[in-house]
Design goal:
There is one protein chain. The protein is α+β, with helices and mostly antiparallel strands. Helix content is about 25%, strand content about 40%. Strands 7-6-5-4-8 form a 5-stranded antiparallel sheet. It has a 3-stranded mixed sheet with strand order 1-2-3, with helices on one face. The chain folds into 2 domains: about 5-85, GMP Synthetase, Chain A, domain 3; about 95-155, SH3 type barrels. The protein is built from 3 helices and 8 strands, in the order αββαβαβββββ.
Length: about 160
């Protein structure tokens, strides 16, 4: 029988994530990552959001305002905290399947585990994404990479 978590049993990060998901539920945006760091009195919360379309500065400000209000209402932090809401940016690895879909046609740098063991990497244009694999056109030809083998993948800028 599965156990049910009660709010008091959730970690602080899980509680913040729940509030962020509540705010994002009525928007086209989704949470990519969330970090809660620091000691009481100087904690920082960094939330990375994305969308299947674009995320503007006004979107980020609205999300920050709404999440901050809920955090304060829930009294999750007994003292000061810093809240940052941002898009992941190209320096952060892709984490979610839908981020790969958004980047079809772009150049990726993918570090992955080979089927025969060991790690390797490939750089090339992301041609397609299915439920289980992605197809990258590298200078050496097309490479099919299972999602389960990916260690990290980043979008490479053209410059």
């Amino acid at each position: 029988m599965a156990s049910v978590s009660h709010p008091s049993e959730l970690t602080l990060s899980e509680r913040v994530r729940t509030l962020v998901e509540e705010v994002l539920a009525s928007t086209p945006h989704y949470i990519v990552d969330l970090e809660v760091k620091g000691a009481v009195g100087s904690q920082s919360i960094t939330i990375f959001v994305d969308s299947d379309t674009n995320v503007g500065v006004d979107d980020l400000a609205s999300i920050s305002r709404d999440v901050g209000f809920l955090i304060d209402t829930e009294d999750l932090f007994p003292s000061r905290y810093q809240l940052t809401v941002s898009t992941p940016g190209v320096d952060r690895p892709l984490k979610l399947h839908r981020q790969y879909l958004k980047n079809i046609g772009r150049t990726l740098h993918v570090h992955f585990e080979k089927a025969e063991g060991g790690n390797t990497e490939v750089k090339g244009e992301l041609l397609s994404v299915s439920e289980d694999v992605l197809l990258v056109n590298s200078p050496k030809g097309e490479v099919t990479i299972p999602f389960s083998a990916i260690k990290w993948a980043k979008v490479k800028l053209p410059w």
